[in-house]
Each structure stands twice: as structure tokens, then as C-alpha cells.
């Protein structure tokens, strides 16, 4: 009888492992085999002016400047939680773009690693925001986390654009439009 | 103990395959990049050579003891190879990325716990204590390797760590072989040693064939060179290093921002 339990447990376990493996292996292969145009096509449009406004506001040395934007205003500029999730997905694409440069130019590994770390940090902030949304504290939490996420995203896009411009890869104009 | 012509053929093919793989690793210079993997292949070579004579001329007790000592060493080496693969994957700057280190420790802990539970559930239709121990031990080993392989794929995909050519080939070979091994162990456990001897023998042959396919995959995959990287010009190199310094400065300001 215990063999039946063992077999059932292992069958479920293997099925779960198989599904997880297929899902993530597909993602790994997709990132590895993508060319420049395919990576660009995965980017989702964001309101770049709004992002820049929030980020530049936060980066100003004059501390009084960024107090103008409160939680609801920032939430509106970013498109709410959904807007942040778009940033999160775009961060994954930015990592893949950096990995593309890393594959062909191994010397760029330091910059690529910095970008990757920033994207993980942004993912963490989005996760915190999701948690706040679930407990009904989204508006109170939004100013703290969303502004930091916008700053990181803005910094990343600036750096990726500079990186591509300097490595003379094709498509910089397309990238500027998408980001 | 008696060995059929088929057994001897498998044994000889495995031995030749391992010799070729060792030669490939040293001739291509990849033994230096993957010293633990090379050690694991060398250990398999010694085991294949030694076990043939022990199995053929030794007593049942000697065969059992030798098998278990070598199987334990092999399992420890496989775990070390997983660590070596992870070091190539998650340390792009020569040291482990902090997020990867935490995730990897969690992965190993969870995998071992799940494995202990599954192995505890495994109660083979046994004919002796020895066979029970053999089945549980091999199941634990192959299940752990399968879980760790899947875990590495998940961590690399979510963390954004690209697979380098030869690291990917070593990991894929080890993961696929462990997966087949796990299926094999489950089937053996379910059927029982004494009751379906011919079926279990066929399953064993499938496992050996899977190992030979893995060996061939490693020989071919590790012989071929990775795609040639392009080189940066000096001005471009200076620009990228400058860019990185700027990024670190920006991040310092962001982290010091008083609202955070």
C-alpha cells in the first residue's frame, strides 16, 4: 500500500518538476536565441516623460523639490500597480539586452551585472507594492516604493541607451523610442 | 559473478567513452575550467575499471561494499559538480552574486528536505535489507540531482544569469541522466527485485544506454568550441568602464535618498 502512496507522490512531484522545467527552460532558450529585433519587440510602451519627471524629482539635491509629488499623484503618473508591473517586465528585457552585449562583448560583464542587480532590486519593490495592495495599503506605500522603482528604471534605461550608443550596435533609435 | 556478453559490451563501451571524454577535457583545456567535473569523470573511469574485476572475481559482500563506497563518492562528486556549475553561472564577476547565493542555499535546503520525505515514502518490494538500502540510496541521489538541475534553470531564468556554452552542456547532460535515473528507480521500486526480474533488467539496460548517450553528448559538446566573442576597442573599453563608475555614483545617491 505504501508503494502506491510513494508512486503517486513521485508522479506528482515529477509532473511538477517537468512543468517548471519546461516553463523556465523555454525562457532561458528564448533569451539566449533572441536577436536584437526580437528583444526590442518584447518591450512594452511606457510614458517616459512621467517616469523621467518622478525620477529627476527624486534625484534633485534640493530636498524640497520632490515633496510636490504625493502617493496618489505618483500612482497616477506611473499607471498604478499595473504600470509598475510593465516596468518590471521591461526590466527583464533590459537584462536580456545587457546579456546580448555580454555575449558578444564579454568585457561589458560588469555593466551587465550592475543592470541585472538593479532589475532585481526593482522586482523587489514591485513585490512589496503587490503586498501593500493585498493588505489595502497601496496608496500609503506607493510614494516610498514607486519613486525608488522609477529612479532605478530611469537610471537603467539611461545606461543601456548609452551602452548601445557606444558599442555602435544597430537599433539605438528604436530602443530610445521603446523605452 | 556471471556477466553476459551484453553486460560486457556495455561495460567496455562505457570505459572507452570515459577515456575519450577525459582525453577531450584535457586536449581542449576544459579540464582547467571544470576541475571537479574532470575529477568526477576520472572517478567514473576508475570505478568502471575496478568494478568489472570486483564484480567478476570478488565475493558478493566485496561487490556490495565496493559498490557503496564508489556510489557514495560519485554522489558527493556530483553535488560538487552542481556547485561548480553554479559557480560558473552565478559568479559573473568572479564572486557569487548576493541574490544568487541566498537563492542557492534555499534551493539546496528545500531539495534535501523534499528528498528526505520522498525517500522515506519509498518502501521497495524487497527481498533483502541490502536491496532496500540500494534502492533508497540511488533514488535519493538521482532525485536530488534532478531537483537541483531544475532549480538551477529556475534561478538562472529568474535572476537573469546567461548559460555559457560548456556549462550548459555539462548541466543538461547531468540533469537529463538524473531524470532518467529517477524514473528508473521509481519503476524498480514499484516492480520489486524478485518479481519482475526481466523487466527490471531491461530498465537497468535503459539506464546504462542513457549514460552512454550522455557520455557521447558530453564528448561532442565539450569538444566543440564556444562561439567566438568579439573584442572591444580601447576607446570603447574606457567608455564602458566610465559608464559603470557613473552608474555606481547614481546608485549611491539613490540609496542615500532620505525618503527611502
Task: Describe the structure using short key phrases.
heterodimer, A: 179 residues, mainly alpha, 8 helices, 0% strand, B: 260 residues, 9 helices
Q: What do these coordinates show?
A:
The complex is a heterodimer of chains A (179) and B (260). Chain A has 179 residues and is an all-alpha fold. Chain A contains 8 helices and no strands. Helix content of chain A is 81%, strand content 0%. The longest helix of chain A has 32 residues, at 2-33. Chain B has helices at 5-27, 30-33, 35-57, 60-90, 98-121, 129-159, 165-191, 197-223, 234-255. The interface between A and B is large, with 56 and 52 residues.
Question: What is the number of helices of chain B?
Answer: 9
How many beta strands in the DSSP annotation of chain A?
A: 0
* H/E element sequence of chain B: HHHHHHHHH
* Amount of beta strand of chain B: under 5%
Largest sheet of chain A: none
Q: What does the radius of gyration of chain A come to?
A: 20 Å
Q: Which SSEs are present, and which pair or pack?
A:
The complex is a heterodimer of chains A (179) and B (260).
Chain A: H1 2-33, H2 36-41, H3 48-59, H4 71-78, H5 80-104, H6 109-134, H7 138-166, H8 172-178
Helix pairs in contact in A: 3-7, 4-5, 4-7, 5-6, 5-7, 6-7
Chain B: H1 5-27, H2 30-33, H3 35-57, H4 60-90, H5 98-121, H6 129-159, H7 165-191, H8 197-223, H9 234-255
Helix pairs in contact in B: 1-3, 1-8, 3-4, 4-6, 4-7, 5-6, 6-7, 7-8
Q: TL;DR of this structure?
A:
The complex is a heterodimer of chains A (179) and B (260). Chain A has helices at residues 2-33, 36-41, 48-59, 71-78, 80-104, 109-134, 138-166, 172-178.
Amino acid at each position: 500500500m505504501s508503494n502506491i502512496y510513494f508512486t503517486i507522490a513521485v508522479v506528482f512531484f515529477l509532473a511538477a518538476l517537468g512543468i517548471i522545467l519546461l516553463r523556465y527552460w523555454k525562457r532561458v532558450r528564448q533569451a539566449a536565441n533572441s536577436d536584437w529585433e526580437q528583444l526590442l519587440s518584447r518591450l512594452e510602451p511606457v510614458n517616459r516623460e512621467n517616469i523621467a519627471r518622478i525620477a529627476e524629482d527624486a534625484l534633485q539635491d534640493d530636498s524640497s523639490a520632490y515633496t510636490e509629488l504625493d502617493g496618489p499623484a505618483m500612482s497616477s503618473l506611473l499607471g498604478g500597480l499595473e504600470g509598475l508591473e510593465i516596468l518590471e517586465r521591461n526590466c527583464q528585457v533590459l537584462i536580456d539586452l545587457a546579456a546580448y552585449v555580454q555575449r558578444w562583448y564579454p568585457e561589458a560583464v560588469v555593466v551587465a551585472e550592475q543592470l541585472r542587480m538593479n532589475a532585481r532590486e526593482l522586482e523587489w519593490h514591485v513585490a512589496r507594492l503587490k503586498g501593500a495592495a493585498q493588505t489595502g495599503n497601496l496608496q500609503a506605500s506607493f510614494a516610498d516604493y514607486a519613486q525608488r522603482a522609477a529612479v532605478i528604471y530611469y537610471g537603467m534605461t539611461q545606461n543601456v541607451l548609452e551602452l548601445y550608443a557606444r558599442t555602435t550596435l544597430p537599433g539605438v533609435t528604436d530602443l530610445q523610442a521603446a523605452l | 559473478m556471471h556477466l553476459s556478453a551484453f553486460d560486457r559490451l556495455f561495460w567496455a563501451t562505457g570505459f572507452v567513452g570515459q577515456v575519450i571524454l577525459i582525453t577531450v577535457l584535457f586536449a581542449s583545456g576544459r579540464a582547467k575550467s571544470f576541475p571537479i567535473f574532470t575529477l568526477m569523470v576520472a572517478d567514473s573511469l576508475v570505478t568502471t575499471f575496478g568494478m568489472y574485476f570486483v564484480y567478476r572475481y570478488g565475493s558478493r559482500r566485496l561487490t556490495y561494499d565496493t559498490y557503496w563506497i564508489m556510489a557514495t563518492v560519485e554522489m558527493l562528486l556530483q553535488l560538487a559538480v552542481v556547485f561548480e556549475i553554479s559557480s560558473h553561472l552565478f559568479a559573473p564577476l568572479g564572486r557569487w552574486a548576493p541574490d544568487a547565493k541566498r537563492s542557492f542555499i534555499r534551493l539546496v535546503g528545500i531539495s534535501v528536505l523534499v528528498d528526505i520525505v520522498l525517500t522515506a515514502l519509498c518502501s521497495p518490494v524487497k527481498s533483502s535489507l541490502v536491496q532496500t538500502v540500494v534502492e533508497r540510496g540511488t533514488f535519493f541521489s538521482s532525485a536530488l540531482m534532478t531537483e537541483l538541475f531544475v532549480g538551477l534553470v529556475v534561478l538562472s531564468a529568474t535572476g537573469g544569469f546567461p548559460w555559457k556554452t560548456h556549462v550548459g552542456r555539462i548541466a543538461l547532460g547531468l540533469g537529463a541522466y538524473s531524470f532518467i535515473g529517477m524514473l528508473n528507480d521509481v519503476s524498480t521500486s514499484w516492480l520489486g527485485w524478485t518479481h519482475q526480474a526481466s523487466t527490471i533488467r531491461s530498465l537497468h539496460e535503459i539506464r546504462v544506454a542513457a549514460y552512454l548517450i550522455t557520455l557521447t553528448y558530453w564528448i561532442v559538446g565539450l569538444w566543440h568550441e564556444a562561439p567566438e566573442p568579439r573584442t572591444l576597442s580601447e576607446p570603447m573599453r574606457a567608455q564602458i568602464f566610465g559608464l559603470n563608475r557613473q552608474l555606481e555614483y547614481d546608485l549611491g545617491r539613490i540609496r542615500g535618498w532620505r525618503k527611502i
